[in-house]
Amino acid sequence: MSKIFTPTNQIRLTNVAIVRIKKHGMRFEIACYKNKVQSWRAQTEKDLGEVLQTETVFTNVSKGQVAKKEDLIKAFGKDDHVEICKEILAKGELQVSEKERHANLDSTFKEIATMVADKCVNPETNRAYPVTIIEKAMKDAHYSIKPSKNVKSQALDVIKLLKENMPIEKAQMRVKINVTNCKDKKLRFDELPKLLKVKESETWSGANGQITALIDPGNFKVIEALHSTSRGEVTIEVLDLKHMNVDEEIL
Fold this sequence. Notes:
- This protein is α+β, with helices and mostly antiparallel strands.
- The chain is 33% helix and 25% strand.
- The protein has eight helices and 13 strands.
- The chain has helices at 37-41, 69-76, 81-91, 98-119, 131-140, 151-162, 185-194, 220-224, and strands at residues 4-5, 10-11, 16-23, 26-33, 58-60, 65-66, 93-95, 120-121, 169-170, 173-180, 198-205, 208-215, 233-240.
- α4 crosses α5 and α4 crosses α6.
- It starts with a strand and ends in an 11-residue tail after the last strand.
């Protein structure tokens, strides 16, 4: 727990990551745990207590100088330290050394390349690219890391960028779809076929059918949502994870 020294009201902190913002000609800082700021911005960390070392707004973290109430009101229109900390977390600049900055950029670059390599294939061979090939393609395309965007969003940006110069597509998901008691011809002959990328097999016996197909990963939940007791019961099962990209929540 942070120790407050009176009467100077200074807070001494160690191993801290500082986020800084300037407003109305004044500097304000918050003290965070290292590696937690990006997690908060990527919404993978949602507990503010795991991000902030102390729910206090400073004018200088290193010297332990706490911001004055009147300065906070002038700059932010309020003196609620927690709410102001959240604003600084969202809009402020993370202070890192040049060495740390390069290390973070290199790490993020490799993480993006790994995600792209893991989730995409060369459509001409249906084989995955090695991470080193993706990294080289990113460098050749002069892709620059965007610290304000999370890895998932940047991976999508990279895929679009690389498509301009090389054959690359998100891998497909091989699934088995069972339709029971189909009462809607539109479901069977229109809606469901439109969601299939490659139909490998299809058998029907009256109102019951089974289809094996490759689909775009984003259509998995769409097909699940076709299930209806009034139109027909639809279930979907993943058969081949090797052809599986990730669902929309991941990439």
